[in-house]
Amino acid sequence: MRRAGRIGSALATLFLTAGVACAWEMAKEGTFDGTWTVSGDSYSMEFGDEGGTVTIFRFTGPALIRTATGFAPSIDSECLGFSAPKNDAIARCVLTDPEGDRIFCALNAAMTPGIANVSGRFVGGTGKYEGITGTVRFQAATGRQSPGKGSSGQTMTIFGNWHLP
Description:
The structure is a single chain. With 165 residues, the chain is mostly beta strands. It has one domain (3-146). Helices cover 10% and strands 61% of the residues. The protein is built from one helix and nine strands, in the order αβββββββββ. It has an eight-stranded antiparallel β-barrel. The longest helix has 17 residues, at 3-19. It starts with a helix and ends with a strand.
């Protein structure tokens, strides 16, 4: 899977975390786990003398989150990101619950051969998620990138915590 897929997966994880904060009687703080399924497109080009590739990507997909009080309603996610040779990847995601309230996530992926170790944080929200903070983490499979347009999809297991003011 392409590096963009890894980043997209990371972003997806963050979106899942956002789902925990829904109006389904969510606690002010807690931990969560769940699955996040994403698919999308990436665009890559060769960069540098060592065969490196830079990639931009957009991934979307639903997240299913479980907390101590049960399953949260499905959350939709959209992530945009960038990766470059010899650098980690970054992505920004917006998680939207069924009522239209959103959680904003910032993701970073440490790239190793075959695996992107993704960590992120909630950096704000709207409506019932205003002031949310917390973290999310997951791993995404990676693959060799080649120049041009690509598409990919992946389901990841995510973990994290949240705190509301």
